[in-house]
Write a structure and sequence with these properties.
The protein is low in regular secondary structure and 53 residues long. The chain has one domain. The protein is built from one helix and no strands. The longest helix has 5 residues.
């Protein structure tokens, strides 16, 4: 029996990072988060967010 996803509206990257098999998400130009701006997280907001539950 599979459990329901907590955040079904959020999508996953097209691959899971495995060293030597796929590009590093941040350091490699082929990575899904390459050159993306880092997200600043405020502690109070994070503790009340569904993403960090």
């Amino acid at each position: 029996m599979s459990r329901p996803r907590l955040l079904p509206e959020k999508t996953f990257p097209s691959y899971a990072y495995l060293p030597g098999k796929y590009p590093h998400p941040v350091r490699d130009p082929l990575g899904h988060s390459y050159r993306s701006d880092p997200v600043t997280v405020a502690v109070a907001e994070a503790l009340g967010s569904d993403v960090f539950r």
